[in-house]
Design brief:
It is a single chain. With about 725 residues, this protein is of the alpha/beta class. It has three domains: about 300 residues, 2-Layer Sandwich (polyphosphate kinase like); about 160 residues, Endonuclease Chain A (Endonuclease, Chain A); about 190 residues, Endonuclease, Chain A, CATH 3.30.870. Helix content is about 40%, strand content about 20%. Helix 8 links the parallel strand 8 and strand 9. Helix 2 packs antiparallel against helix 3 and helix 11 packs parallel to helix 12.
Length: about 725
């Protein structure tokens, strides 16, 4: 088998792809996976932006590589779960699993080719003028080369282990997302024309993951980054004494990480053990992609394809560096050298809240506070927990945790609270993908300290973000709550945009108490007043509000829908948005990533627009707005419009009810619709078009990732959607 495509194979593949795109074009829905690739293209577009400095551009290139790793681990892994076991699947695009895979791989090949072109042609030429280079061994002087060889002999060489595969050795278990050398060897004196293949052996040398990717050489005028694989390649002969090395090639594989969990309701230990087993299985899951140096041994590659049951279009050849996530080392090195890690000062939220309130309980009693991170500091949330841990009047703390930081102040506050005799209940979702090990470790720490830890709910992921503090205030017991769209993670709160509501509203806190009873016990409340929850009634409630807007439009009343979410994939909800559009409802969608809805199609979705914001911060906020004939209903929360959110997760949306906080949410949506720097508009064919630059249109620059750091109360209270009449009478003098 030749891994290079013949002209006939290319023509056959092109025919399949063209036929597939004809099917895709006719579908009323966009493929989730193809839409995901479009999102990564928008991230890559940030790396193209010449207005950014070189380190920012490298950062976005590294992010695209990390995204693609997850794509092959989860999405392509999921596709193989159908292909390998003969299960049928029809994608939203209308394609069955095999033609869809060919189409998906072709699109991914084009994307990867562009990332490599961008790195070599656009970014590399800028390295030298910014004081650094990625080099080869030939760029070192004699003294530097001696230091490199000494580093190899002392540090690298003792860690390397060649693993041979031949008729007496089984194929080794190679790690995913690890750089590996494939070495074809032959013992001296064995080779003849007749036995050339029989005498060959393949061995694999994995580069240890705890070694830094680049060996750094600092000169007076520049910093040089030498890829560690080039050092090993130069010295690899030391592992094969008295053996002829025929070829050496670097590669990297990605494995399937999409697994189903068999959950045991009657045994907590079995549940944790099952998760640990699945984590190990993920490390040895089926191979979904090979990244390989160009010019590798054809014979070795054929063996690998046969072993891993892959096709030619599953190989991604590279003529530059493999694994662009390596650029994080360069970025961090530059930050340390410059000592200029940019972090704009956050602004206080509307109301009486300071950056670090002396008494958070007193502040919260004055009214609801909506935090918009990272523009508002995450500190008040940390203060709520830390003050609660020390306050003798606090009786209990309840919280849901999905992802926390490595050195979490959240976890430390909960530990201190338990040590101080508070009743601490933690629903710790240990099934959070790729954070399972960290979550299990932290959950066990909390449990040993005396916290009541619930390890998620069998069959569901707990994704909702809730915190409740119960405080004895003499004449009454009062509840203080925080509800959020983002995780209780002080690190990502600086990088992701999210909203969080601090409240003592008795209606909402009563709902939260009921909801905690549901997810930690066996309660079944009749209804919530200001919460919408999944898997119970979220889809049904959202559909009902969409239908209400359609009814208003048909009756000639004002209507409108604006959703800001990460992903839009649930077909039932999409169909209702199509119907609302056909009824005359203006639907404005702000969708960061996956969008399976097809906008602007005649007769289907002419009144629907979709835009995506991709820029300095990862857009993570979820806000749901329904015009409701001039009396808007606005919700925030943790849920996207996805099948998994509605059917397979414990989620919540909370009503943003108070006049001031509701107007703040409307203002966030309003400015997201005005952004002309980070915004992309989705076309009917599923592609995205960058909004024309302000200078081209004669407009002022409107970059929400900068503007939200400068917002004032007047701008907030003047914001409108769908040209509704003013719903706010009072003015606020407090500046944001």
């Amino acid at each position: 088998m030749n891994t290079k495509q013949t002209p006939d194979e290319k023509r056959r593949l092109e025919k399949v792809i063209n036929k597939s795109y004809d099917v895709i074009e006719k579908s009323d829905y966009i493929s989730r996976d193809l839409s995901w690739l479009k999102f990564d293209e928008r991230v890559l577009d940030q790396a193209r932006d010449v207005r950014r400095n070189i380190f920012d551009r490298l950062k976005f290139l590294a992010i695209t590589a990390s995204n693609l790793d997850e794509f092959f681990t989860i999405r392509v892994g999921s596709l193989y779960n159908y292909i390998d076991y003969g299960k049928e699947r029809t994608d939203y695009s209308g394609l069955r699993e095999l033609p869809f895979k060919k189409t998906l791989m072709a699109a991914t090949q084009s994307f990867v080719t562009e990332t490599q072109r961008l790195y070599k042609e656009d970014l590399t030429p800028e390295f030298l003028e910014n004081g650094f280079r990625v080099i080869g061994l030939n760029d070192l002087n004699h003294e530097e080369m001696e230091q490199v060889l000494d580093y190899f002999n002392r540090t690298i060489y003792p860690m390397l282990t060649p693993m041979v595969f031949d008729h007496t050795h089984t194929f080794p278990s190679l790690l995913g997302k690890t750089l590996i050398f494939g070495v074809v060897t032959k013992s001296e004196g064995e080779r003849t024309e007749s036995n050339i293949n029989e005498s060959r052996k393949i061995s694999f040398v994995q580069i240890p993951q705890n070694l830094k990717r680049f060996y750094v050489v600092e000169r007076e005028d520049e910093i040089m980054f030498l890829p560690i694989e080039e050092i090993i390649r130069h010295e690899i002969w030391k592992l094969y004494k008295n053996v002829e090395i025929e070829s050496v090639a670097l590669f990297r594989i990605t494995r399937n990480g999409d697994f189903d969990l068999v959950e045991h309701e009657d045994s907590e230990t079995d549940f944790i053990d099952e998760i640990k087993k699945k984590i190990k299985d993920r490390r040895l899951g089926r191979v979904t992609r090979i990244e390989m140096e160009s010019g590798c041994s054809e014979w070795m590659l054929q063996m690998m394809l046969k072993r891993w049951k892959l096709e030619k279009n599953d190989i991604f050849f590279s003529n530059s560096l493999i694994d662009f996530t390596a650029f994080w080392q360069i970025i961090k090195h530059a930050e340390l050298k410059s000592k200029q890690v940019a972090q704009r000062a956050s602004v206080p939220a509307l109301g009486q809240l300071t950056q670090k309130p002396e008494n958070i309980f007193e502040t919260m009693r004055q009214g609801d506070i909506l935090l918009h991170h990272p523009f508002n500091n995450f500190e008040p949330v940390l203060q709520l927990l830390e003050q609660a841990a020390e306050d003798p009047q606090v009786l209990a703390i309840k919280i849901t945790l999905y992802r926390i930081s490595k050195h979490s102040r959240i976890a430390e506050a909960l530990l201190h609270a338990a040590e101080n005799g508070k009743h601490v209940s933690v629903l710790f979702e240990v099934k959070a993908r790729f954070d399972e090990e960290n979550n299990i470790r932290e959950a066990l720490r909390l449990q040993k300290a005396g916290c009541f830890v619930i390890y998620g709910i069998p069959g569901l992921k707990t994704h909702t973000k809730l915190l409740q503090v119960i405080r004895n205030e003499g004449d009454a017991v009062k509840s203080y709550a925080h509800l959020s769209s983002g995780n209780y993670n002080e690190d990502t709160a600086k990088l992701y945009t999210d909203i969080g509501l601090l409240t003592t509203d008795e209606v909402l806190t009563r709902d939260i108490s009921e909801f905690f009873n549901v997810i930690t016990g066996h309660s079944q409340p009749h209804s919530y007043q200001r919460l919408i929850t999944a898997p119970r009634d979220m889809r049904k409630s959202l559909v009902k509000m969409i239908q209400h807007e359609a009814d208003n439009a048909k009756a000639g009343l004002p209507s409108g829908i604006c959703l800001k979410i990460n992903s839009l994939q649930d077909k039932i909800t999409i169909d209702e948005l199509y119907k609302a559009s056909q009824a005359g409802v203006k639907v404005q969608l702000i969708v960061r990533g996956i969008c399976c809805l097809r906008p602007q199609r005649k007769g289907l979705s002419e009144n629907i627009t979709v835009r995506s914001i991709v820029g300095d911060f990862l857009e993570h906020t979820r806000i749901y707005y329904f015009h409701n004939n001039g009396e808007p209903k606005v919700y925030g929360g943790s849920a996207d419009v996805m099948v998994r959110s509605f059917d397979r997760r414990i989620e919540s949306l909370f009503e943003i009810y108070g006049t001031q906080v509701k107007q703040q949410a409307i203002h966030i949506l309003d400015w997201n619709l005005k952004d002309n720097v980070n915004a992309y508009t989705m076309q009917e064919d599923g592609s995205f078009k960058k909004c024309a630059s302000p200078t081209e249109c004669g407009e002022e620059t409107f970059d929400i990732h900068k503007k939200f750091f400068e917002v004032n109360a007047t701008e907030v209270m003047e914001a409108k959607l769908f040209q509704e009449e003013e719903i706010i009478e009072e003015t606020l003098s407090t500046e944001v």
